[in-house]
């Protein structure tokens, strides 16, 4: 076949072609040639060559047919494209003409040119509809360039805004805003932002209109469905939904801020959000306060019900206020003592629940309140916390605890008020932490700050006053218990034994029991207080402990051996005083121990002992009072040495 192709030369002449074939064939030359003429061989070569030519012809024909088909297809496509371009140009030309005619028609008087004006308006409207339909079809096909062309033509028509509306509607239909409207909206705007600049001359306006459409129709409808259902029936769910929806909407707004939406996109987006939520935010704080009060009351009631306790009324008014002032000034128990059976009526679980509810309220308040209303709304939430946590729970427990403190002369009294003190201190710390962590940031730069601080100061001072009263009365009861022990256990013969030579004990039984009782109370005070309060209360308790022992020792007369036993008791009391770890208390017992030496020192040494380091600064009457306790005081010798 390759050989056959070589025989073709341009221009093609059949005789020359055969002649070239004969000369190339062995035995095909003339008789005078180098080889003898062989007609059979030449005939065979002709037959083979004709077959090759037929095969070649068939292949060429198939190729020709294929090229013809391809050419026809391309011709049709080209013709169609030309037709479309021509049609497109005719639209542009027609649009330009009808636009000019429309402008001219506006100037023509209606009475003379009404028919003409009507025809122009009709043609204007028809062409406008055709353009919008063409834009819609191009958008469905995804032909961005065609959309851009049509939009450019429509820019000068009244229906240009309708073209934008069609684009926005079609974008939303393709986006299918159903699963997560906030996430879907962000994705939609991201996609449109990449595309809109290739279609419209003012892409920021179109994108802003899309966002406005989504907010005012889709998003507003979604928010309404979520909130209206529970608005009247379930305040808790309503507040949670409102907070969540508002938070997600503002988060979406923050994402949209990255797009070009015009000059003041912050104000634009804020107005859209306000339009959706304004009817819910206007009375938000009323719903919040109402829910917080009912929820707090329910938490407290559930707790008291679990204790099978009916809250007693703590009266208010003139008589009650008078009783309160008398009690705080005189420390007198007014009214009968109530047996609380060891119950403090303070619950850390209740406190945590109340603080958690208030914390969530503060968070919602921060998010949902107008900045100008935020400090005032936060203060209202704080007053609810004060009402239910501080007054209805802590103050009630303090009042009940105070009423449960027995009188100081009660025997075997159970003292639970220190447990109240311990729990109240823990609660105060939690209350103070929430005040600093969650309320202060909301009011720190407003006049409400001083009001909140003053309210907090007042409520804490009021409670501290009751705590101080309760602690004071508890200490009185402790001293009363110690008095009962001493009265019951201490005998006059302890310090004037009948047999001076047969005293075997190191200290009296009364001393042992008092020291045991005191050590338990010291430990309890340490566990119930914190910070400087521990030292303050222990010092007061230690001073009263010392006064009790001092006055107790003044009731007896002491023999020499009895005086030694008193010194042993005081030494034991002094060991007990060391547990207080208060220098003043230890110093008092050191002095008392030195005073007891006056009970046993030889008469000749009394003046020397009295002028010693520990006793020199004491009033002479005190020294004299202890010397008078000696059984041998009335002897002339002792009186002479001490005078």
From TrEMBL:
InterPro entries: Sec10-like, Sec10_HB, Sec10_N. It holds the Pfam family Sec10_N. It comes from the Eukaryota. Residues 39-90 form the Exocyst complex component Sec10 N-terminal domain. Residues 50-88 form a coiled coil. Residues 93-642 form the Exocyst complex component Sec10-like alpha-helical bundle domain. Belongs to the SEC10 family. One of its GO terms (cellular component) is exocyst. Keywords: Coiled coil, Exocytosis, Transport. GO terms for biological process: exocytosis; Golgi to plasma membrane transport. This is Exocyst complex component 5. Signal peptide: none annotated.
């Amino acid at each position: 076949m390759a050989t056959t192709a070589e025989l073709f030369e341009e221009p093609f002449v059949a005789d020359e072609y055969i002649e070239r074939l004969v000369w190339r064939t062995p035995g095909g030359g003339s008789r005078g040639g180098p080889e003898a003429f062989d007609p059979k061989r030449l005939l065979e070569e002709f037959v083979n060559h004709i077959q090759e030519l037929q095969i070649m012809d068939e292949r060429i024909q198939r190729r020709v047919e294929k090229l013809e088909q391809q050419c026809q297809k391309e011709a049709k496509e080209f013709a169609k494209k030309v037709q479309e371009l021509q049609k497109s140009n005719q639209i542009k030309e027609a649009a330009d003409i009808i636009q000019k005619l429309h402008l001219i028609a506006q100037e023509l008087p209606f009475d003379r040119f009404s028919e003409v004006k009507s025809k122009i308006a009709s043609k204007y409207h028809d062409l406008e509809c055709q353009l919008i339909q063409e834009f819609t079809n191009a958008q469905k096909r995804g032909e961005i360039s065609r959309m851009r062309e049509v939009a450019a033509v429509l820019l000068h028509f009244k229906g240009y805004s309708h073209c934008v509306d069609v684009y926005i509607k079609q974008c939303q239909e393709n986006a299918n805003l159903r699963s997560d409207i906030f996430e879907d909206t962000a994705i939609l705007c991201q996609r449109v932002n990449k595309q809109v600049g290739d279609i419209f001359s003012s892409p920021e306006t179109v994108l802003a209109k899309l966002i406005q459409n989504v907010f005012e129709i889709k998003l507003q409808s979604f928010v309404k469905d979520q909130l209206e259902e529970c608005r009247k029936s379930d305040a808790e769910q309503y507040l949670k939904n409102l907070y969540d929806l508002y938070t997600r909407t503002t988060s979406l707004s923050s994402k949209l801020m990255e797009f070009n939406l015009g000059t003041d996109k912050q104000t634009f987006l804020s107005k859209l959000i306000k339009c959706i939520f304004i009817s819910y935010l206007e009375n938000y704080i009323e719903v919040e306060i109402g829910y917080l009060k009912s929820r707090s009351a329910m938490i407290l009631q559930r707790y008291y019900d679990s204790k099978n306790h009916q809250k007693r009324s703590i009266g208010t008014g003139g008589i009650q206020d008078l009783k309160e002032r008398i009690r705080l000034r005189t420390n007198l128990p007014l009214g009968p003592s109530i047996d609380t059976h060891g119950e403090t009526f303070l619950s850390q679980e209740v406190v945590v629940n109340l603080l958690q509810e208030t914390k969530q309220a503060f968070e919602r308040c921060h998010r949902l309140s107008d900045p100008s209303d935020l400090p005032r709304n936060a203060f209202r939430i704080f007053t609810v916390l004060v009402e239910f946590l501080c007054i209805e729970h802590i103050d009630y427990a303090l009042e009940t605890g105070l009423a449960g403190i027995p009188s100081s002369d009660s025997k075997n009294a159970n003292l639970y008020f220190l447990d109240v003190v311990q729990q109240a201190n823990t609660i105060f710390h939690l209350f103070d932490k929430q005040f600093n962590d969650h309320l202060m940031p909301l009011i720190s730069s407003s006049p409400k700050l001083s009001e909140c601080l003053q309210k907090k100061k007042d409520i804490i001072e009021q409670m501290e006053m009751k705590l101080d009263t309760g602690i004071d009365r508890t200490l009185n009861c402790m001293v009363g218990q110690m008095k009962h022990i001493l009265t019951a256990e201490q005998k006059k013969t302890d310090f004037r034994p009948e047999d001076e030579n047969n005293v075997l004990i190191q200290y009296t039984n009364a001393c042992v029991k008092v020291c045991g009782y005191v050590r338990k109370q010291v430990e309890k005070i340490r566990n119930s207080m914190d910070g400087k309060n521990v030292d303050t209360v222990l010092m007061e308790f230690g001073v009263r402990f010392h006064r009790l022992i001092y006055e107790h020792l003044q009731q007896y007369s002491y023999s020499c051996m009895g005086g030694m036993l008193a010194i042993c008791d005081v030494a034991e009391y002094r060991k007990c005083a060391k547990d207080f770890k208060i220098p003043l208390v230890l110093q008092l017992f050191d002095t008392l121990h030195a005073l007891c030496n006056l009970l046993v020192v030889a008469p000749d040494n009394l003046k020397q002992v009295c002028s010693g380091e520990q006793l020199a600064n004491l009033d002479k009457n005190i020294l004299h009072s202890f010397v008078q306790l000696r059984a041998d005081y009335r002897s002339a010798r002792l009186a002479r040495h001490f005078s």
